[in-house]
Amino acid sequence: MRELTYVAKRTVEWREAPDPEVRSAGEAIVAPVAVTPCDVDSSILAGHGFIDPPFALGHECVARVVETGDAVTAVIPGDLVVVPWSINCGTCDRCRAGLTAHCSAVPYMAMYGAPIGGNWGGLFSDLVRVPYADAMLVPLPTGLDPVAMAAASDNWSLAWRLVAPHLKTRPGARVLVVARGSIGLYVCDIARALGASEVLYVDPDAEHRRIAGEFGAATAETLEPVPQSFDIAVEATGRVDQLALVVQRLAPEGICESAGNHFRPGELPLLDMYLTGVTLRIARDNVRAHIPDALDLAASGAVAPGRVVSNVIDWEDLPAALPEKHLKPVFVRADD
Length: 336
What we know:
- The protein contains 10 helices and 16 strands.
- Strands 3, 5, 6, 7, 8, 15 and 16 form a 7-stranded mixed beta sheet that branches. The protein has a 6-stranded parallel beta sheet with strand order 11-10-9-12-13-14, with helices on both faces.
- It has 2 domains: 2-154 and 300-332, Quinone Oxidoreductase, Chain A, domain 1 (Alpha-Beta Complex), CATH 3.90.180.10; 155-282, Rossmann fold.
- It is globular.
- Helix 4 runs parallel beside helix 5 (182-193) and helix 4 packs across helix 9 (291-300).
- With 336 residues, the protein is an alpha/beta fold.
- The longest helix is centred in the middle third of the chain and has 15 residues, at 155-169.
- Helix 6 links the parallel strand 10 and strand 11 (218-220).
């Protein structure tokens, strides 16, 4: 089989690898049919990652189950499934607590798309081994488009986690989103659908602002000085200077979720945050725990994640097209 391999800045190529095999009764083999780059993949391709190439890329996809071990009961060959980005067993204490990105049964940081916590390959591959199939794989609800939901492995479900639980406890909250990619746009859509009284989306990209406007958000090119008035804020830029501005726009006891990958150091206005009583969360996403809820929202028809898909591109064009600058391209393969 082939796996798409990151070899240098802005350069990826197909490389041959052995076909994965079911190694135990609880495993499965899947074939990705709709894959998309995570926002962090753009940083890796731009040369901002912290891992030297080469390595297999990709950790967002909808796939079709090809083969299962004898003990797998949650899926059968032929099912369309979401494959979560992190490797998790589903039965250890951390997994049972919902901390699936911190599974104690596998090495720390075990994931698809980067050789951290072992080499699990990438989801931009012809075939992928899933070691804990019943725990990891989530059937795609009938009627949902695999192209629209290719990001459910991470970005779409992460966006749900960033805002949905907070809106449940703070109905009608005012939401600030400062972003540079798909996560922020998904947040705008979800926040509007779940009853935010106001959503302000800040991004220098005019096309991104246009999409946010279609989701009912007010938009701005830059974050201007405003009163401390937002109840919930989401930062998804990967820039600490932007995060510092965001936390200063929160109302007393406001919540800030940072989804940016902060590869560079910076400073935060800790005294201001102390005086305001800010809650700041910067964390790897335990995505498997809330993929079902995020898919349920998508299936309800109240949201339109497909609007964020910028391009639909043939699977064979991955090496040439992935390094190009697109908001959220989805690469599709004929479902044999």
